[in-house]
Amino acid sequence: MTETASGSARGSRTKGTKAAKGGLRIERIHTTPGVHPYDEVSWELRDVVMTNWRDGSVNFEQRGVEFPDFWSVNAVNIVTSKYFRGAVGTPQRETGLKQLIDRIVKTYTKAGEENDYFASPADVEIFEHELTYALLHQIFSFNSPVWFNVGTPQPQQVSACFILAVDDSMESILDWYKEEGMIFKGGSGAGLNLSRIRSSKELLSSGGNASGPVSFMRGADASAGTIKSGGATRRAAKMVVLDVDHPDVEAFIETKVKEEEKIRALRDAGFDMDLGGDDITSVQYQNANNSVRVNDEFMAAVENGTEFGLRARMTGEVIEKVDAKALFRKLAEAAWACADPGIQYDGVINNWHTCPESGRITASNPCSEYMHLDNTSCNLASLNLMKFLDDDGKGNQSFDAERFAKVVELVITAMDISICFADFPTQKIGENTRAFRQLGIGYANLGALLMATGHAYDSDGGRTLAASITSLMTGTAYKRSAELAAIVGPYDGYARNADSHKRVMKQHADANAVAPRTEDLDNVIWAAATEAWQDVLRLGEKNGFRNSQASVLAPTGTIGLAMSCDTTGVEPDLALVKFKKLVGGGSMQIVNGTVPQALRRLGYQEEQIEAIVAHIAEHGVVVDAPGLKTEHYEVFDCAMGERSISAMGHVRMMAAIQPWISGAISKTVNMPETATVEEIEEIYFEAWKMGVKALAIYRDNCKVGQPLSAKKKEEEKAEITEKAEETIRTAVEKVIEYRPVRKRLPKGRPGITTSFTVGGAEGYMTANSYPDDGLGEVFLKMSKQGSTLAGMMDAFSIAVSVGLQYGVPLETYVAKFTNMRFEPAGMTDDPDVRMAQSIVDYIFRRVALDFLPFETRSALGIHSAEERQRHLDTGSYEPLEDEELDTEALAQSAPLASVPAASAPKPVEIVPVPAPKTAHSNAELVEMQLGVSADAPLCFSCGTKMQRAGSCYICEGCGSTSGCS
């Protein structure tokens, strides 16, 4: 059973359990004495108008909001729409970032002062200013519930992550339904382990068979779906865990596999089975993530090929033996088929548990980063790692470990203060959270930091740098926790768990001592981390600890966008080309700003960097970029595209940083559609060997249901109806077959003959047109007559020409054949097409320039030399007339007027390129530019394609998430 402390569900506001001993001395980090942080930045007014681009409807509108001029459009949109309190259009509505930050910071400062955290009024003021500065400059962010609730009249819930408990009784099961529902109602998520419930193979006291946990999952799933449909625009976030030795584990593994088969059958029969569709509610178990909790005994049996016992819940006796390898295979097959269940490793989880005397860790929150006692919650905050990278713009870089540690101390202090005034959804969760004071400090932008410093995500250097930062973060957090324990007392459960807590601290310190060091950049961080862990052991022995847990790695979805992070949580970058909304309306695509930083770090000159960036802007990848060494390609590997990071590369990164995370890591390992069951088995097995606590895999396109816009659904329904009518009609009348008509060119036809050289191979292209200027035929002649290449080019020319004459649009050919790569390839003698990946690539780029209108080829990323020069000079490929812009309609955080203030440094801008008109997010831009499919749902709120953030999805357009945030 979990140890509890007294206190009401509304939250105790009494002082610490021990008398204050002097209070904390707060050190200035960023602020200036006598100057408020607000007075050091330049402010401006913006209009925020957010629309659903699919139907043009306005989702949100608030004009004249005040933000610093260096905040991005997307960050302003998301913070205004998600976090400002009060009804829009009323005097109670917040109108600027100052009001939002003050609402939170002043609440924290007041609570810290009332609970004797600070040594003097001067320390109170410094704390308030430093916390304000850090939020204002996007150095860190609290989790979303803090922004939603703190400083408002509503309950001040500060936690996003919850773990519940359920026992083998109907009363407990019904309490589970109720508690889970109340958490969902508040927009948060919860997880729990069902393994205490008797299996369907065991008897009840009345003599009948028990229903088993899988049957009770149906009721909870229906409850979650109903609460979701009652007002929320996202699925309820929940995690269901079952131990691998539970007799119903096979039925649990197969639940979603069978439902996925049902979805496919109903879809093929014409039912609307998209996520959120009219008929998807008939399918069960869709509102939860499932995970199997495996222990070391089971994994050893898998390794040795032996049997494994399934145990009765009430007596613990083995009631059935199964082949461990066969069960493990079923787990992998289910994950291959539908991405569920994930896996959690009980041995390593409980080996790093600081409070085993108060109960085992049996479950996690929905995103799998928070793992602690049942009926508890965790308050999260994440640091923006790129804010600590010092870069002189010439390739000289350092990570400011000292400043990073000071910010960690500030943030962890604020997080602990929040528990003093926080409210909780149930009395049990409130009591336990106050008794154990679990915190979850973490970070975002790791992928961007690694690339900017010239490290491949899947490399020893990248993993070492990530590990050193993680060790310093958690070591500093526990150091401050021990300092707080001396002032306001250790957590209530510490005395009972002191030996175990100190044992885990030593495990962290020992792991830090033996961790590999690779270069000067991480050596400085390791040195600071080592000193921090020495202080942890020394101060912990003397004072104990204020918090039973200090760190997790969360998805950082909405708050990552609010901090303008390029990457979320522990994830690598999605792609090298970014979709960016512009102040004043419209959008552009820009090459990721970390690319030039990385190239400078790797020693490239500015002229080379300019050429490489231009190549990436056009092609979306670094492959064949002029002057880029092949050994540096890996630095620019991303989550999607031709050079995507391997599944095992993700697992290796998780394993590298796990020894310094108190909880776990929210991460889904993406795998291509071609991945095999054997590969999933390997990932699940190797992750256990490497000490990962939990993970899930997602194989592309393994899910059927995806949400579609209402308009798209209507189109599909109309199409289905039309097909049905056509089927009936053809049954009673003769089928009339339509064939396209070939439109031949006249005898006399205008044409252009172009000589070219691609990678040393010479040739001639003749392109003839119809009198109305539409391209009608293409002839290609290579210099070596009779060669296989010349013959294939002749045949290819005829095929393309016939297709054009039968009506195939030229832009279709251009889209299909540009970027096709084969030899000969390389430099050309054409100033408009300097590099070609093949002769076919060159031909269709040249044809596009000669015959396609500017708008069409620009959307395909094809521009002439003159247009590219204009872009470098003016930032635009084509001048736009004033009457072409409707800035009122396009406004997305457009500035209205400047508010006089001190000037702020302007961030370095990477030269933008007009974004394709059909892309509305980074995920959609990647699909267009790289020709790959981002297997993600569409946002229910704004229709934008979402992208993965940990084990959830985040909408870049409006900040909505598919899970707990």
UniProtKB/TrEMBL annotation:
<dbReference type="GO" id="GO:0031419">
    <property type="term" value="F:cobalamin binding"/>
</dbReference>
<comment type="similarity">
    <text>Belongs to the ribonucleoside diphosphate reductase class-2 family.</text>
</comment>
<feature type="domain" description="TSCPD">
    <location>
        <begin position="749"/>
        <end position="848"/>
    </location>
</feature>
<feature type="domain" description="Ribonucleotide reductase class II vitamin B12-dependent N-terminal">
    <location>
        <begin position="49"/>
        <end position="138"/>
    </location>
</feature>
<dbReference type="InterPro" id="IPR013344">
    <property type="entry name" value="RNR_NrdJ/NrdZ"/>
</dbReference>
<dbReference type="GO" id="GO:0050897">
    <property type="term" value="F:cobalt ion binding"/>
</dbReference>
<protein>
    <recommendedName>
        <fullName>Vitamin B12-dependent ribonucleotide reductase</fullName>
        <ecNumber>1.17.4.1</ecNumber>
    </recommendedName>
</protein>
<dbReference type="GO" id="GO:0000166">
    <property type="term" value="F:nucleotide binding"/>
</dbReference>
<keyword id="KW-1015">Disulfide bond</keyword>
<keyword id="KW-0547">Nucleotide-binding</keyword>
<keyword id="KW-0170">Cobalt</keyword>
<dbReference type="GO" id="GO:0071897">
    <property type="term" value="P:DNA biosynthetic process"/>
</dbReference>
<dbReference type="InterPro" id="IPR013678">
    <property type="entry name" value="RNR_2_N"/>
</dbReference>
<dbReference type="Pfam" id="PF02867">
    <property type="entry name" value="Ribonuc_red_lgC"/>
</dbReference>
<dbReference type="InterPro" id="IPR000788">
    <property type="entry name" value="RNR_lg_C"/>
</dbReference>
<feature type="compositionally biased region" description="Polar residues">
    <location>
        <begin position="1"/>
        <end position="11"/>
    </location>
</feature>
<keyword id="KW-0846">Cobalamin</keyword>
<feature type="domain" description="Ribonucleotide reductase large subunit C-terminal">
    <location>
        <begin position="159"/>
        <end position="698"/>
    </location>
</feature>
<keyword id="KW-0560">Oxidoreductase</keyword>
<dbReference type="Pfam" id="PF08471">
    <property type="entry name" value="Ribonuc_red_2_N"/>
</dbReference>
<feature type="region of interest" description="Disordered">
    <location>
        <begin position="1"/>
        <end position="22"/>
    </location>
</feature>
<keyword id="KW-0237">DNA synthesis</keyword>
<dbReference type="Pfam" id="PF12637">
    <property type="entry name" value="TSCPD"/>
</dbReference>
<dbReference type="GO" id="GO:0004748">
    <property type="term" value="F:ribonucleoside-diphosphate reductase activity, thioredoxin disulfide as acceptor"/>
</dbReference>
<comment type="function">
    <text>Catalyzes the reduction of ribonucleotides to deoxyribonucleotides. May function to provide a pool of deoxyribonucleotide precursors for DNA repair during oxygen limitation and/or for immediate growth after restoration of oxygen.</text>
</comment>
<dbReference type="InterPro" id="IPR024434">
    <property type="entry name" value="TSCPD_dom"/>
</dbReference>
<dbReference type="InterPro" id="IPR050862">
    <property type="entry name" value="RdRp_reductase_class-2"/>
</dbReference>
